[in-house]
Amino acid sequence: MSILILAEHNNEEVKSSTLNTISAASKISSDIEVLVVGSNIEGICKEISNYQNIKKVLSLNNTDYEHAIAEKIEPVIMS
After folding, report:
1. Residues in contact with 45: Cβ distance below 8 Å, sequence separation at least 6, in sequence order
2. What is the distance between the alpha carbons of residues 13 and 41, in angstroms, rounded to a whole number?
3. Whole-angstrom distance, CA of residue 39 vs CA of residue 51
4. b/e string for 47-66 if b means 16 or more Cβ within 10 A?
5. pTM of this prediction?
């Protein structure tokens, strides 16, 4: 079973809560996908792709999501 994690970040670095979530998910499955939504997130995506058990990094890189709030991200997750 695949696990999807929504990465928390500030468009520059990954927040520790995301790292903790990845660590916890790794105890359940070795098939983890991470969704990164933001602006200028190439570095974040590359960093996350190097973490253990990450099989896929999905990204939405758009200036509309530079200061992403739940109301903006919810349609992305649901699609």
Report:
1. 36, 57, 59
2. 9
3. 21
4. bbeebeebeebebbeeeebe
5. 0.90
Cα–chain-centroid distance for residue 22? Answer: 10
Tell me the C-alpha distance between 77 and 79, whole Å. Answer: 6
Q: Where is 60: in which H helix or E strand?
A: strand 54-61
CA–CA gap between residue 51 and residue 62 (Å, rounded):
23
Residue type, 47: E
pLDDT tens digits, the chain, 79 residues: what are they? 899 999 999 989 999 999 999 999 999 999 999 999 999 999 999 999 999 999 999 999 999 888 878 888 888 888 8
